[in-house]
Amino acid sequence: MPLPARSILLRNTAALRPTSRSFNTSSKALSRLRQPGEPTGPNEPPSHTSSPPSKSPLKVWPIVFIFCAGSFMFKKIVDQRKEEGQYQSRGPCFKMPAIENLGATTRTSPLWSPDKVTVIFVLGGPGAGKGTQCSKLVSDYGFKHLSAGDLLREEQDRPGSEFGEMIKTYIKEGTIVPMEVTIQLLENAMKKAMEEDNKSTFLIDGFPRKLDQAHAFERSVVPSKFTLFFDAPEDVMLERLLDRGKTSGRADDNIESIKKRFRTFVETSMPVVDEFESQNKVIKVNATQTPDEVYQDVQARLKEWGIEPITLKFVKTDA
Ligand SMILES: Nc1ncnc2c1ncn2[C@@H]1O[C@H](COP(=O)(O)OP(=O)(O)OP(=O)(O)O)[C@@H](O)[C@H]1O
Ligand SMILES: O=c1ccn([C@@H]2O[C@H](COP(=O)(O)O)[C@@H](O)[C@H]2O)c(=O)[nH]1
Q: Is the pLDDT of residue 97 over 50?
């Protein structure tokens, strides 16, 4: 802030001059001889009316100094709060300017039409089996699978990423990374899959985890077709996650992080499912069954939405 603060100061110096008369020794001397409101001389108006501003720059320095010190202290406090906000476990109170500058969420109309680009959101509690089912769908339906969590972990580990540390903290705490980052990562990955692999149907796994993400994505990227929701109770998910944690190497597959993730899921992510449900855009599947049983249900439900597998069967021939 040094420059704006200085330019304000320069403008204010002129504005402050009239009031600085009280610091002028000659004015002080005169006021000692006068009663309040008494004219300052035979041809002078009473003292409560304005008199010409003093030209001496010396008189404004105390005010300039106080202003500078105040601005400096204010900037220090703002900087400190920004830093604290970035590492708060329940989400930041200040966003980094760099995040605000990310373009994906600033559009007021969608980048793509739902006629050209199909997005299926995949939601469910941590460990419900979203990733497992997405893998199966990819091989049978040719969808492009994009996991928001995987994209965030990739960005976290990318050398030189300005968001790496922040993402790490949010993931460990099981809270939701500011939507600007996640939506930009998703948009980039979608563009890449369209350009390089000619994909136009996306399974977006583990997103949107918060209402603001859902609204921003549908407003600025593309409206979703529907949401595939994998439903399982916490005890089932906990057992799966602890088991996965033995080999996953994930920083959040431990009991402390899992509890926080469950809480975030109930408080922050379920409202997203409820909102889509109210729009009749949710396919809910019982995720406590075996992976194959869950998948059978998924396939049956997709068929109801007119979505069929594209799997090519290779038949062995004699030639
Ligand atoms: N239906 C199932 N029955 C038993 N185990 C399952 C089932 N589906 C997935 N799993 C196992 O549970 C663990 C979590 O599955 P998966 O990674 O697919 O869940 P997820 O919903 O994507 O989790 P997260 O949200 O944490 O990424 C994995 O170890 C997986 O092998
Ligand atoms: O939209 C999202 C998706 C994920 N996160 C963070 O990542 C972790 C892990 O996500 P998984 O889907 O389990 O891989 C999640 O707990 C969040 O901290 C996010 O912030 N926003």
A: no
Q: What spacing in Å lies between the alpha carbon of 174 and ligand 2's midpoint? A: 7
Alpha carbon of 195 to ligand 2 centroid (Å) = 26
Q: What is the ipTM of this complex?
A: 0.99
List the domains of the chain with CATH numbers: 119-304 (3.40.50.300)
Q: Of the residues 121, 122, 132, which should be mutated to test ligand 1's pocket, given the most ligand atoms within 8 Å of the CB?
A: 132
Give the predicted TM-score (pTM) of the model.
0.73
What residue type is 49 in one-letter code? T
CA distance 157 to 175: 18
Lowest mean pLDDT across 41-45, 151-155, 166-170, 181-185: 41-45
Instruction: Answer whether 206's CB lies under 8 Å from 122's CB.
Output: yes
CB within 8 Å of 20: residues ≥ 6 apart = 54, 59, 60, 63
**Which secondary structure element, helix H or strand E, spans residue 204, and what is its range?**
strand 201-205
122 ligand 2 Cβ < 6 A: no
Nearest ligand 1 atom, CA 128: 21
User: Is the CB of 152 within 6 Å of ligand 2?
Assistant: yes
Quote helix, strand, coil % in the chain, to nearest 5.
55, 10, 35
* 69 — pLDDT class (breaks 50, 70, 90): confident
Instruction: Determine the distance from the C-alpha atom of residue 141 to the mean position of all C-alpha atoms in its chain, rounded to a whole number.
Output: 32
